């Protein structure tokens, strides 16, 4: 039997910041690895990094690095590690850094050479810019990746999800799936909201991640059905 062909990668975006893109991306890595593929995560631009003996490190990028197999170099996982926990455009300006596509594409190529599937996590929500000259659609086009949307289930999720879906389509990206993340355990009628989204979203749901105060991506991977 010939080896299975996988999608080369996914670009993971969200309905907003704080919707759990990193946990879902790490869970996707575990789920894809469970299918038998070598999978590596990447967060090209990360703001809110801490200094250490080996340089600036971002908690979300470290989560993706830990969920990857084989384990990649941190500098390739996160080429732009920005100290301030601000919008990337502002954080980069404060650090005196100009974000460019070339270093990201070079790091992606090094990672892609090691993996069958790449999971690339964006910044904030879909419309959040990377810097003054780059939007996320520019990176998606350069990497030629389809888009998966993480929907944080909280008040307003239906509106945010549908607007995000329209924006992704309007930008010309290939939108292939969405994942629900139960980020607010106090949300009223969460199941009903999820069911409305299942009926209204234009692409398949790849799963629903249950709420956990200390999420474990390896365990949460069982909630996902990645169509790679």
From TrEMBL:
Annotated EC: 6.3.3.3
Catalyzed reactions per annotation: (7R,8S)-7,8-diammoniononanoate + CO2 + ATP = (4R,5S)-dethiobiotin + ADP + phosphate + 3 H(+)
Domain of life of the organism encoding this protein: Bacteria
Pathway the protein takes part in: Cofactor biosynthesis; biotin biosynthesis; biotin from 7,8-diaminononanoate: step 1/2
InterPro entries the UniProt entry points to: DTB_synth_BioD, P-loop_NTPase
Subcellular location: Cytoplasm
Cofactors (names): Mg(2+)
Catalytic residues identified in the record: 43
Residues annotated to bind Mg(2+): 22, 60, 121
Xref: Pfam families: AAA_26 (PF13500)
GO function term, MF aspect, one: dethiobiotin synthase activity
Ligand binding (substrate): 47
Keyword line: ATP-binding, Biotin biosynthesis, Cytoplasm, Ligase, Magnesium, Metal-binding, Nucleotide-binding
Binding site for ATP: 18-23, 60, 121-124, 181-182, 210-212
Family affiliation: Belongs to the dethiobiotin synthetase family.
UniProt xrefs under NCBIfam families: bioD (TIGR00347)
Known partners and oligomeric status: Homodimer.
PANTHER family, alphabetized: DETHIOBIOTIN SYNTHETASE
Known function: Catalyzes a mechanistically unusual reaction, the ATP-dependent insertion of CO2 between the N7 and N8 nitrogen atoms of 7,8-diaminopelargonic acid (DAPA, also called 7,8-diammoniononanoate) to form a ureido ring.
Name listed for the protein in its UniProt record: ATP-dependent dethiobiotin synthetase BioD
């Amino acid at each position: 039997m010939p080896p299975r062909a996988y999608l080369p990668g996914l670009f993971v975006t969200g309905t907003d910041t704080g919707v759990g893109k990193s946990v879902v991306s790490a869970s996707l890595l575990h789920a894809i690895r469970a299918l038998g593929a070598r999978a590596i995560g990447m967060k090209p631009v990360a703001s809110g990094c801490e200094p250490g003996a080996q340089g600036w490190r971002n908690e979300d990028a470290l989560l993706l690095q830990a969920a990857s197999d084989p384990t990649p170099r941190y500098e390739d996982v996160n080429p732009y590690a920005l100290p301030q926990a601000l919008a990337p455009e502002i954080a980069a300006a404060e650090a005196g850094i100009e974000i460019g596509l070339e270093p990201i594409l070079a790091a992606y190529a090094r990672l892609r050479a090691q993996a069958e599937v790449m999971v690339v996590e964006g910044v904030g929500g879909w419309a959040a810019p990377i810097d003054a000259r780059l939007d996320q659609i520019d990176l998606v086009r350069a990497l030629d990746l389809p888009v998966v949307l993480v929907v944080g289930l909280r008040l307003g999720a239906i509106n945010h999800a549908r607007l995000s879906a329209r924006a992704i389509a309007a930008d010309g990206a290939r939108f292939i799936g969405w994942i629900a993340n139960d980020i607010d355990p106090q949300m009223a009628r969460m199941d009903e909201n999820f069911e409305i989204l299942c009926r209204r979203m234009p692409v398949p749901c790849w799963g629903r991640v249950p709420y956990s105060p200390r999420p474990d991506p390896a365990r949460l991977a069982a909630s996902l059905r990645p169509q790679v």
